[in-house]
Automatic annotation (TrEMBL):
It comes from the Bacteria. Residues 10-165 form the N-acetyltransferase domain. Keywords: Transferase. It comes from Amycolatopsis rubida. This is GNAT family N-acetyltransferase. GO terms for molecular function: protein N-terminal-serine acetyltransferase activity; protein-N-terminal-alanine acetyltransferase activity.
């Protein structure tokens, strides 16, 4: 089901293939390090965004949003409703902003808006995983009300796991 959520100046809406160029242009070393695991290509970004659109269309487990500020793509947020390290009823939240949009609270607001969607889809608890060195991601989790539950190793990588009950 399509979703468009607003909180005033910030909006979330499903990522579209035509967002790929703006996203690719907005990537910087920080996004590449924490979210992508390595530099991508414009063609790869387009393919991934087509996959995201297909997930929306088919009711898949991924819901990828464009974070838009006054209509401009400022970053992305995604929810994964299933995965190897998720318990039933849990949803994993991930997010990233392009450099010019950081430091203004948009990531925290986008996470909270995405979690309203997740709760409406039946999620009971949200999870954010952050690498221990990613202080900015951890700060977003704390500002959004998540509590640190400890460190876990998943797929050979160490993460701090934060949880938030969605009520």
């Amino acid at each position: 089901m399509p979703f468009s959520g607003l909180d005033g100046e910030l909006a979330l809406s499903p990522l579209r293939p035509d967002d790929a160029e703006a996203h690719f242009a907005g990537e910087d070393p920080e996004l590449i390090r924490w979210l992508n695991g390595g530099p991508g290509t414009l063609a790869g970004t387009r393919e991934y965004f087509r996959h995201c659109q297909q997930e929306w269309a088919t009711g898949g487990s991924l819901r990828a949003f464009g974070i838009r500020v006054h209509g401009v793509l400022a970053g992305t947020a995604d929810l994964r409703f299933s995965g190897e390290y998720l318990a039933p009823g849990e949803v994993n939240a991930a997010y990233g902003l392009y450099p010019e949009w950081r430091g203004r609270g948009f990531a925290t607001r986008a996470v909270l808006l995405a979690l309203r969607y997740a709760a409406g889809e039946g999620a009971r608890r949200a999870v954010i995983k952050a690498e221990p060195e990613n202080a900015n991601s951890a700060a977003v989790a704390r500002r959004a009300g998540f509590e640190l539950s400890g460190r876990v190793t998943e797929g050979g990588e160490v993460f701090e796991r934060y949880f938030l009950d969605l009520g």
